Amino acid sequence: MGQFEGKTAVVTGGHTGIGRATAVRLADEGAHVFVIGRREAALKATAGIIGEGRVTAVPGDITDLADLDRLYDAVRARGRGLDIVFANAATASFAALEQVTEEHFDQTFAVNVRGTLFTVQKALPLLNDGASVILNASTAAGNGTEAFGVYAASKAAVRSFARTWANELTGRGVRVNAVSPGPVDTTGITELFGEESAPAAREKLAAGVAMGRMGRPEEIAAAVAFLASAESSYMLGANLYVDGGENQI
Questions:
Q1: Is 72 considered catalytic here?
Q2: What are phi and psi of 178, to 5 degrees?
Q3: Is 249 within a domain?
Q4: Alpha helices by DSSP H, 79-216
Q5: What is the count of structural domains for the chain?
Q6: CATH code of the domain containing 76
Q7: Which among 72, 151, 234, 241 is annotated as catalytic?
Q8: Is 137 among the domain residues?
Q9: Residue 193 pLDDT more than 90?
């Protein structure tokens, strides 16, 4: 039996990258995982990897409150409450200060901040005693990368949420923590930098990491599983860096 046997988890953005790796890890440890994502084909692929009976795929967008309601209605219908929430879904794009548009700002904050807030808020009635909420922040929140200011600010907000919500929910026995990945090798790198520039970007990102390589989604998933488990029972409001030493050395 895995450490999450009989537990119920929600992973947003669970159709690719860190979200998919985490959904697979939690399911492998025994949890029934609800995954939500905007790309239906990728969502089905994730469900296929996890296997029938261990996953419920819910197509949807966390910026749409009706989609979040559908997600949590499905969790409620299962009748076992909710033990783990990994608020992972996010978006990223570059824009220097003079290039920032209303659209760029609104899209980034709609997903990364507003979407994260309502993902957790709407989960509250379902959270079981001892539940764990993990927010996906980022090392970008503190490193001042050029032309990444709006994204960085959105992730700083997420990190702040973890502190406040940990304080607000600890009386219910619910722990809230954040994980801050460094550069992770996912398809998101290609989406961010473009097909032609992605190989050079990966090399540059790896060179900036003390370990000399980018992270793997499974390594972030392992950290999330730790924060979701009783092994991290004395961690509250923390921000766990999983960055190969990028921001530490």
A1: no
A2: -120, 155
A3: no
A4: 102-109, 116-121, 149-169, 187-193, 198-207
A5: 1
A6: 3.40.50.720
A7: 151
A8: yes
A9: yes
